């Protein structure tokens, strides 16, 4: 603060004796304010937007969840009734099971593949590295809906390419939408196709941050690429890897568009709710069943809490691994 | 192609707003009945399915100088959430909205969202089928919607596939094959033996037809709108009929509106399907120009019925209520309904339109020149509407059809399917 006052250039000309100190004092006050509050101004846009589009709807949803809320009619306060109903709701738990099932089915192979690809792309000797690094990101640029539509076609029972391909090996046509496991596989494939490249790039960035001399030292000790990957890359990559896991958790638990389009737009997701996710169940209650919007809001908050808990778990694991 | 893509884009649109819609559903309902006197620049019309309004809208634009934006969604279960969202948030609703019978009943619970059309368009009660006009009224007496079409029933069938299976192909002979649903199943079994392929798309498709043939009966609700889905005789008999269809093994087990279903029309996965008149446009779009003249239309087994049909309503949030009401009247007047019918098949409810020579003499080129005007025009008079309650659509789509499908595809037993249906019907129907 005083720094700016002392380093201010001496003003040229002949200022009046009174004017100069006053101006300097004004300048420094402004600077002080600037130093103190500008940072807040710089970060404000995010927080203002978050407040409007993030926090406010969240709190509003919480408020709704405490009501018997008809979306186009009346609202009655009922306290935590919606939440206690939720705990005994078979379909809610079915949706939770589906969501976590598809999350695991999609995330585990996805991260393994991403790790493998990142390691390949990290090789110094690879030609046209930039091309491959960019190409791997392309699926993520394609809209979710387009992915879901195309994969929906691929996984058709009667005329789908996948069934045609399996048919070559004598496998009977699979009705992908009718069984829990087959529908999960189909939906997880969509998720993987879209997000593997994205995670690969994050992991690649993490790999690049690992000091080269570690590898040189390892090489001098006679470690081959495989050994280097296990003993140098993987341990050093742990924080990045956990970050990727958290991102995938948040995304995976909010799975919605893929299964919805896979179900031809029906929110119950399969004849026996084989792939109805929590988001779809929320949608079924709040939008589809107008009079149960409060219950839908409770589902939304339950989902939010689940994501928080799972992310916290991941966070705890990170801290431990970093230490 | 266009239907399926449009429908999927609709699904996407629906999907993307989902999170916002639940949280931001805090609309202020302070919207008054302000109908501005100034002529609007543009009116927006929301329809689903194939309403056939494209040419009409152009006419209207020329006559009035008011632009009309036609927003189409192919499938009802993606159309409805949009309407709900705009009603709930008080924003984004079209000026004229097509209300299908299933969802009209639901919206009747809160009629304040809809403009009373009667004072704006005058007394049109003599112009329409009287029962249809009356159903457009809310319990408080306001006219929520002007009648567009009814869904008189028929069976669409592929003549080329029938011929290959040594079945008759002329529509009168085909109609004679199945006076009852039992005979329909027998015919299906003959077809399957000869061709090795499925006869109809699904059991749920047929059950819809059966359900709406229960003249005047209560389906999922009684007249006081109590949920009686689990004990309604009409529902039970439709259910049994669907089970019989599934047991006969003549269905292709295809979910209606799925990609398999869309492709099935082109590929001949099935040879027949239940066809309320509004379905003609959908069959045509899905089968594509290459199958023109291969489809024909026969009578439905078991006599007349009415599946579907809509009204045009104006939401109170419209800023141009008077003009919107006039546009709705224009689209549902005699000339409008005849034109829509010729374009996409929705069957007129306007009495003069039903008498109009250009309607009665209309033959549908795509359906082997079937005299659809005559066939459907005559069946309209026999329609006795079934009673639909507030959550009819939700119970049908999210409880009954999935349970039947689970049985049809062998995932569950008869008893368990019924259990699933009654349980879901009770929760879907809670209000």
UniProtKB/TrEMBL annotation, chain A:
This is ABC transporter permease. GO terms for biological process: transmembrane transport. SUPFAM superfamilies: MetI-like (SSF161098). The keyword ATP-binding does not apply. Residues 96-316 form the ABC transmembrane type-1 domain. It is found in: Cell membrane. The keyword Transmembrane applies. The chain crosses the membrane at residues 40-63, 100-122, 134-155, 236-257, 293-317. Keywords: Cell membrane, Membrane, Transmembrane, Transmembrane helix, Transport. Pfam families: BPD_transp_1. InterPro entries: ABC_transporter_permease, MetI-like, MetI-like_sf.
From TrEMBL, chain B:
Pfam families: SBP_bac_8 (PF13416). Keywords: Signal. Gene3D superfamilies: Periplasmic binding protein-like II. The keyword Ligase does not apply. Residues 1-24 form the signal peptide. InterPro entries: Bact_solute-bd_prot1 (IPR050490), SBP (IPR006059). Transmembrane segments: none annotated. This is Sugar ABC transporter substrate-binding protein.
């Amino acid at each position: 603060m005083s720094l700016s006052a002392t380093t201010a250039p001496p003003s040229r000309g002949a200022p009046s004796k009174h004017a100069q100190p006053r101006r300097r004092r004004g300048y420094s006050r402004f600077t002080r304010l600037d130093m103190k509050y500008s940072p807040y101004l710089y970060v404000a846009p995010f927080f203002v937007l978050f407040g409007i589009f993030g926090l406010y709807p969240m709190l509003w949803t919480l408020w709704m969840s405490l009501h018997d809320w008809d979306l186009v009619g009346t609202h009655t306060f009922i306290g935590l009734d919606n939440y206690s109903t939720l705990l005994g709701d078979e379909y809610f738990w079915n949706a939770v099971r589906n969501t976590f099932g598809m999350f695991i089915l999609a995330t585990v192979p996805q991260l393994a593949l991403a790790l493998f690809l990142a390691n390949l792309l990290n090789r110094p000797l690879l030609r046209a590295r930039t091309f491959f690094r960019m190409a791997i990101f392309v699926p993520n640029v394609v809209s979710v809906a387009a992915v879901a539509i195309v994969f929906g076609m691929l996984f058709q029972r009667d005329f789908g390419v996948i069934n045609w391909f399996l048919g070559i090996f004598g496998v009977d046509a699979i009705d992908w939408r009718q069984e829990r496991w087959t529908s999960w596989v189909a939906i997880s494939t969509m998720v993987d196709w879209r997000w593997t490249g994205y995670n690969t790039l994050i992991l690649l960035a993490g790999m690049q941050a690992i000091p080269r001399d570690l590898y040189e030292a390892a090489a001098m000790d006679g470690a081959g690429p495989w050994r280097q990957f296990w003993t140098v890359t993987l341990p050093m990559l742990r924080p990045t890897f956990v970050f990727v896991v958290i991102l995938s958790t948040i995304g995976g638990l909010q799975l919605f568009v893929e299964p919805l389009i896979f179900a031809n737009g029906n929110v119950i997701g399969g004849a026996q709710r084989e792939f109805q996710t929590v988001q779809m169940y929320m949608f079924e209650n709040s939008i589809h069943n107008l009079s149960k919007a409060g219950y839908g809001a409770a589902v939304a908050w339950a989902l939010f809490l689940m994501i928080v808990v799972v992310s916290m778990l991941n966070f705890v694991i990170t801290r431990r691994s970093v230490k | 192609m266009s239907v399926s893509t449009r429908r999927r884009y609709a699904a996407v649109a629906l999907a993307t707003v989902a999170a916002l819609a639940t949280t931001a559903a805090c609309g202020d309902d302070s919207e008054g009945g302000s109908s501005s006197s100034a002529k609007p620049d543009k009116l927006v019309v929301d329809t689903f399915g194939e309403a056939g309004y494209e040419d009409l809208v152009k006419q209207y634009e020329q006559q009035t100088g008011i632009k009309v934006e036609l927003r189409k969604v192919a499938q009802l279960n993606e159309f409805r959430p949009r309407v709900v969202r705009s009603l709930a948030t008080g924003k984004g609703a079209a000026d004229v909205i097509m209300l299908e019978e299933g969802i009209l009943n639901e919206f009747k619970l809160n009629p304040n969202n809809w403009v009373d059309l009667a004072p704006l368009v005058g007394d049109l009660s003599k112009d329409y089928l009287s029962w249809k006009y009356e159903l457009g009224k809310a319990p408080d007496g306001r006219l929520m919607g002007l009648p567009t079409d009814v869904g008189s029933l028929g069976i669409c069938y592929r003549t080329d596939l029938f011929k290959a299976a040594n079945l008759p192909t002329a529509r009168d002979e085909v109609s004679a094959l199945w006076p009852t649903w039992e005979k329909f199943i027998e015919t299906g079994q003959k077809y399957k033996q000869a061709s090795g392929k499925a006869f109809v798309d699904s059991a749920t498709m047929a059950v819809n037809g059966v359900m709406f043939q229960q003249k005047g009966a209560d389906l999922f609700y009684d007249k006081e709108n109590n949920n009686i889905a689990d004990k309604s005789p009409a529902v039970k008999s439709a259910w049994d009929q669907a089970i019989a269809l599934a047991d006969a093994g003549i269905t292709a087990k295809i979910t209606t509106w799925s990609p398999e279903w869309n492709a099935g029309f082109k590929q001949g996965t099935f040879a027949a399907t239940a066809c309320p008149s509004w379905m003609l446009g959908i069959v045509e779009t899905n089968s594509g120009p290459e199958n023109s003249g291969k489809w024909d239309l026969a009578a439905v087994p078991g006599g007349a019925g009415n599946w579907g049909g809509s009204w045009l309503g104006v939401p109170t949030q419209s800023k141009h209520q008077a003009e919107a009401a006039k546009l709705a009247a224009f689209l549902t007047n005699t000339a409008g309904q005849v034109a829509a019918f010729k374009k996409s098949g929705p069957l007129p409810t306007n009495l003069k339109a039903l008498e109009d020579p250009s309607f009665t003499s209309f033959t549908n080129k795509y359906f082997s020149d079937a005299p659809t005007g005559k066939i459907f025009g005559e069946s309209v008079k026999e329609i006795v509407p079934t009673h639909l309650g507030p959550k009819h659509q939700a119970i049908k789509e999210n409880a009954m059809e999935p349970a039947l499908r689970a049985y049809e595809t062998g995932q569950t037993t008869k008893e368990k399917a019924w259990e699933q249906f009654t349980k879901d019907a009770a929760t879907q129907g809670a209000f």
